Amino acid sequence: MTPLNYPAKPRPGDRVAVVSPSAGLPGLFPHVYELGLRRLREEFGLEPVEYPTTRVMGADPRDRARDLTAAFADPTITAVLATVGGDDLITVTPHLDDEVLRANPKPYFGYSDNTNVLNHLYRLGMVAYHGGSVLVHLGRPGKPHPLTFDSLRAALFTSGWYDLTPAEEWGDQPNDWRDPSTLAHEPVMFPGEGWRWQGPARVVQGRTWGGNLEILHWLMAADRVGAVSDHAGEVLIIETSEELPSATEVFRILRNMGERGLLAGLPAVLVGRAKAWEFDRPHTLDQRREWADAQRDAVTRALAAYNPDAVVVFDVDLGHTDPQLIIPYGGEIRVDAVERRISVRY
Questions:
Q1: What fold does the segment set 169-345 form as a domain?
Q2: Where are the alpha helices (DSSP H) in 171-236?
Q3: How far apart are CA 138 and CA 230, in angstroms?
Q4: Cα–Cα distance, 332 to 235 (Å, whole number)
Q5: What is the CATH code for 15-159?
Q6: Rounded CA separation 133/184 (Å)
Q7: What is the C-alpha to C-alpha distance for residues 201 and 326, in angstroms, rounded to an integer?
Q8: Which tens digit of pLDDT belongs to each residue from 102-157?
């Protein structure tokens, strides 16, 4: 098992990199992006620093890798935040300068396609942070979600243990970024129903690994996932994207992980609340509940075959739904199925 280290944290007033290693969507939606930058300054007291490809759609993967490497190399930069996800970061990480990254560890925040970077830093021995997007979370319409911002603030500035909190309300129906007027009101939200626990009543403590389930599948296909022994004893975190993979696809991905031997050694699994709405699939609330039930059933079926004794927690707000809790990637986590509490060490 590779030893992992927590990079030093930024302080209010510091300069932080704002990068788009996945997709340059800030160039298409500057009104959302500028709102996110303003909140980064006003709510967190941090000074964002852009790089040449931050607002460029379709930038060459080598240029995006050059920007990300430069952000780590700059001694005046104390953290790195991804603006958003995308679908081709798998072509960027091979161009990163690993010697520079190892020599200049910094907290990296991102999710979705950024699972590529999180896993890359993990393999370099660096704890990163699953969650946080300048567009999606800092640029949330209406006002910031308090759970998201409290978690992000703690992850940015503190190093102790932090108790995750089940959301009292949730949403998976974002406002349309193409219409700037939608920034004036919050997204549609629904009452929360708490986490759903499954498996034995025991306490599991270890470090985390995982991320977006579809990207994990790509990483396995590209042979960028470590040996089974590297992940033994870890807590798997998984979530699904706005592409809404079917329950069948979720089961098949987990089955493939099981056949590789990855699932058997994981004592606990945290499953993000399933996103079940997208602009081209505007499901009703009942349809979303059915979708989420099918996703939970798919995970349960796969784990029954490959790890029936795992502690499983469903509907944790760690993925593509609103709010989003920040999870240290490769960092410590405690999953207490006796008291039904989840704590992370930032």
A1: Glucose Oxidase; domain 1 (3.50.30)
A2: 213-221, 228-231
A3: 34
A4: 9
A5: 3.40.50.10740
A6: 19
A7: 24
A8: 999 999 999 999 999 999 999 999 999 999 999 999 999 999 999 999 999 999 99
